[in-house]
Amino acid sequence: MKQKLIITIGRQYGSGGRLVGKKLAEALGISFYNREIIELAAQQSGMSEEAFEKVDETAASSLLYSIATGAYMFGNYVSPQVDLPLNDKLFILQSEIIKSVAIKESCVIVGRCADYILKDRKDVINVFIHASKEARKQRAIDEYGIAANKVENYLNKIDKKRSTYYNYYTGEKWGYSTNYQLCLDSSVLGIEGCVHMIESFIHEQSAKTK
Amino acid sequence: MKQKLIITIGRQYGSGGRLVGKKLAEALGISFYNREIIELAAQQSGMSEEAFEKVDETAASSLLYSIATGAYMFGNYVSPQVDLPLNDKLFILQSEIIKSVAIKESCVIVGRCADYILKDRKDVINVFIHASKEARKQRAIDEYGIAANKVENYLNKIDKKRSTYYNYYTGEKWGYSTNYQLCLDSSVLGIEGCVHMIESFIHEQSAKTK
Q: Measured between beta carbons, which residues in chain A are less than 8 angstroms from residue B208?
């Protein structure tokens, strides 16, 4: 039987981490999960995909803020048993999907605290992709059409959102090296270089355990 | 002319990062600097190597503490122009040595904020080696003869010392992925695996810039 491969990829905005994951999955001939997890969460819960997209990779707001903004799914304002914010519901659903996907098949999973959710499995490789600010700004302008005069601010905002999300749900520090087995700078290596490095990691790890 | 290679290695205590650096330097046929930098600092300053060793990779203490412990080299208690603490003197000397070594030759430099000291050079590869706590404890017991009942405490103490030293002199966070181009978990890869991964990195980076 071929070795099972589960690779999670955390990534700074504009580092090309999603693309690294996609190309890696293609190269290895295994499944790729990014926004696909939201689709699955929507299907399984019968909730709207659009509603989930709005709170994807966003930490839950405070209780009062959630009530004020109507961010409750099934808010029960009469009973003292208030429902969970949509963010928390999505996190729980995504966690279940990520766990069941990892049981079922080899795959690459991008973002969504997958490294933390799968921390009890011993067969997971956790990767973090980052890049220089200059390279990330350029990618945001070229690939995502962000206006040049707004890119710095946008970058900081998304970084803040992702780190808050990760730190909130895991209690760990997003992007801190010890949370991952491999961290790579894509501005030095390029997308293909990162893919090759993860393939080398799989090879070296397998050589060590033989 | 062969490509110049300057590789800095930051490392958690017990991760085997020093050994990775030594084996890498051997494999590449380039110089290796770890405690050798203290020897050079002692030679160049005419100071005692033992005195330097005591404060190596240790952040400067507060002024009062330094005076109390006699940690001043040429403390002038009469003049208001007090001298620098020994830690700071060593840091400055090491910085000068690291910079001149990097100008002179290809090399691997372990610890001592070399990544930060050489940050203005574009031809440096900064690596951070970490490992699981279990693996680090075992290495500390097996390789450094630390008593099993004291190893946990010892590990935490050295980690704290190294991170305080790095954060104090660089203003950056020790072990945070974005300070390095490559971070590796040696408990998953082994020492040889880490050496191979750094060699792969050099290859991929060179392939990208061609």
A: 188-190, 192-193
